[in-house]
Batch of 2 targets.
Target 1
Amino acid sequence: MEFQSVNKLLEKSFQVNWDRAALSNYQGVTLSYRDVARRIAKLHIAFEQCGLERGDKVAICSRNQANWGVSFMAAITYGAVAVPILHEFKPGNIHYLVNHSEARVLFVDEVIWEGLSPDEMPGLSVIVQINTFKFLYARSPELANIREHLNESFGRKYPNNFEPEDLDYYVDSPEELALINYTSGTSGYSKGVMIPYRALYSNIEFAHKDAEPQLKAGMNCVSMLPTAHMYGMMFEFLYEMTIGMHVHFLSRVPSPKIIMQAFAEIHPDIIIAVPLIIEKVYKSKLKPIVDRNKFIMALPILDNVIAKRFCTELTHAFGGQFEEVILGGAAFNPEVERFLHKIGFHYTVGYGMTECAPIIGYAHWDKVKVGSAGRAAMNMQIRIDSPDPRNIPGEVQVAGPNVCLGYFKNEQATRESFTEDGWFKTGDMGIIDEDGYLFLRGRSKCMILGPSGQNIYPEELEAVINNYTYVVESLVVEEAGGLTAIIYPDYHQGELDGFRRAELEKRMLTYLPSINQQLPNYAQIKKIEFIPEDFERTPKKSIKRYLYQR
């Protein structure tokens, strides 16, 4: 494939869409492409005066907001390496990642700044308050002085106003390092994934030509996933910026209520989400109706009418204007997926990971196979390390321009993650059918060996358990040679239905025989345990499994 400069794509988009809306904080400020370009230009001046060189690292740690986007694009269009850090990390983690990445500049919001100490991050030249771009810390009075006179410096550099033709962004090359993205996976150990520009460009080309060719300048997108995570960064922000779209950052905790309110107001043209959001809507609004009308829905004639009504209502709830809802980042509940497929809802389940920036597998909503994670995305190849890839699960291995350069300052992890012939080892298990569709079975690290050597994928057992009333989420772990299901119950709903906590738990223990009826003999659940609060999760909303292993 032929690569183009990602920064020059941004430059052209800014010039063409100068007066269009670019970035908004939901129910707050809106920046046009002109405003964004102007802020980037000021930051470039500050970077230069601070002595920042091409290839130096710029860390960004804040919740989603318009200035997150400005800071990120200012870093890469200058030629620096962006280091997005998830704002959910604890202060100790943030100190470590800033130091590990060798960052020279840190953008941070006020809430996170309260827990940080400049003394713990000696490599930083300046720390910038992301909401105002004021310097919270500067290593010397000379550096502090740069911010005080930034407007004067800007005026001297652009004496005749700041116009589209003034943009001249850094020209990146395909193998060059664009950003270091620290994983927040379920294994508990953050690694700095080195993402090259070729991976960003390949993902942009995939979105432009395959997944989202209908998107145009002026259309809307709601950014609700963490922008510090590759999935949200690439498909709710960066791609949109290259084609002149308007990105609305929720800029607060993305609860289902806030998300649905934003969809109703903004009417997004594309929706990028994790399955948890749709599963919550299904469980709270649709499943009770489905359960009450099982007999009617079994009648073919009425079934179509009801299915169409369900589809219309769900589509309307998500804003009514989208081409499709692209789900990814976690396994999708099979019951919910079968229901969406039955009613004809425009959804698809993709497959990706940070190390592929992020896309690996995808199929358009009208080509979806229920239970699959799509086919190899544009520019990518997928293979299964198995003697019989169609029937015997093996590790999913991938190759293509999306694949990362490796892990920053971790040669051992880099070596272990690639095969001898250069394919990336995902750590996921799966099979591929005769049409090239990928069906995931779970993480190889999570796999449990059954009593007679059978492979048990706890995610498949959890999908059965999660369909039961009052189950918010479950986790299956191996304990004393058997399987235990840890369940987080919906105590609030139970209370509304008249059950005290102990009564609800007693009722849910009676689910065990019914659950085991749906599971193979070698994967029977021996006991159920309850936890009083939700599982600890990554920002992608996956459960941190390593915390619950016995």
Target 2
Amino acid sequence: MEEGQPLYKPAERFKIQLKKEYHRNADIFFEELAEKAQTDKNANSLHVKAYDKAKAELEEARKKLGKVKAGKGWTIAGIIISFVVALILVIVGIINLKNGMWWMFLLAAAMVGLGIFFIHLLRHGVKRALLAAQEEVAKKEAAAKSALDTCYADMATLNSLLDDTMPGQVMEKTTPLIDLDPVFSPERYAYMRDRFGMTEDKEDPGTSTLGVISGHIQGNPFILQHVFRSEIQDKTYTGSLTITWTTTHTDSKGNVHTETHSETLYAEVVHPAPAYWDETRLIFGSEVAPHLHFHRNPSGISGKDEKDTRKFIDKKIKEIDKYEEKIVKKGGTFTKLGNDEFEALFGAFDRDNEVEFRLMFTALAQRNLTELIKDPEPYGDDFIMVKDGKLTSIASVHSQHFDYNVSADHFRHYDFKAAKERFVNYCDSFIQGLYFDLAPIMSIPLYQLHKPTDYIYNGDYVSNMTSFEQEAMINKMDEKLFLPDGADPSLYPLMKVASAKKVGEADEVLVSSRSYHTTPMVDYVSKMGGDGRMHQVPVHWTQYDEVNCTRNVGLVDSKKTRPQFNHASLEPLQKYLEKNFHFERGLLSFYLGNKDHLQQSDANAIRDFFKD
């Protein structure tokens, strides 16, 4: 595909061409990497078979050891039972000696003999068998480890070449129109901020970025942002109390009867508690229809057949007609399009600029989006679309359940075939998910055809990295480092960039971390029981008291690949990395602590360390 070639029918193009090309190019990419690494695939295949055989033999040896251990247990049980029965027989024989039950002593002697036999079996036969089985397991474990080490040796060079950005590289190679960035740079953010009005999440204390991917389509920028959210909400706690009471009554014959009754009383209380969730959304900047605003939700037709879809559309059009009539009477500007199917399925009834709406949604755009919404494959109509002037955001169901920021470690394996399958499968999922988040955007040809005017970045960003990337890197570090004193360790702290400053080519970031100290509490709620009395129903709940702390973290964009970083001598950075660090996509974060600060001399050393 030629660079910058528009995808006028993105959903259709994916189905008939791009899906296969993406898959094939992921396969080729991995094969070329293996060729560069000079991986002997045939030898690895033989070594993997040898490891599988050694692993199976180890499993068999462990089963045999388990049977021997079970036999040992039964033997010990036999010893205990033999002597216990012998003791019982002796006691019974003594008690009944006058009754001529002397033969009990003969049985007791036989049981003692059986116990002695089990002891001999345990000390000699079972012990030897156990030692032999343990030695066999140790031997098989060593053989399996040796075979596995050989497999890893086959893959060592290839594993060292794996990088975090490879799935994105496969996507760019197949569709150059979708240009992905190595990192979300200050320049890209400043462009989205100054030209399209995007803002950072730093002012929102309830969000923290977990991951971000940025890029552009024909110069129109976008980011896919994965955020962690937390806020205090009312939570309902329930409790119960079971009561019993008795009643008496006299029947017609004068007999008094007592009856026991039982009832479970339920109560609930409401207290504030933190709620946590994460979400992923794509934000796209474009100067197309800059004064238009609207919101659309999934239509709900996914899974419906053609007949039910038609019924849905007919019903929706009647509702739209009434809505249009109502809006016009109020002096509004809503005017229904001539395409009833698109109007019913796409929605966007709160649009506020009919001229720009029609400019965007040409006949081709309407057809593309209608097909995208109606087609159940691969995801159906699962996206929310919001246009807010120059920014358009997409939030899809499928992207809420996928991790777009896995490490290269995910692809490392001892088996070439399994590693390749894992890589290609992830690329398929990564590309398909991102592509169909972009599909509603690309379905509108004007978004692809309109190129924004030139933008000159003036370099006024306060740090070398965006707060998006800073928070994403911090969230990949050990969260225990950022846990406030007294915080419940089972709760994930929400970490925000409080401030950041440049220290040479590195950043020192002050991280504000928020969590909660938890205290078990009980409320007693009065409830009337069936016995006519008030009862206090206990309701257990948790009191959450906010606790905070701040920590310092250093960050730097090394512009190195993971292979380059893995092969570098980290000694110049050891004073920082020994505490805790994380590396991905060329970015390095390292823990400074509560009081330590990044010194200029160390920042210079880091800069020199990462120079080519």
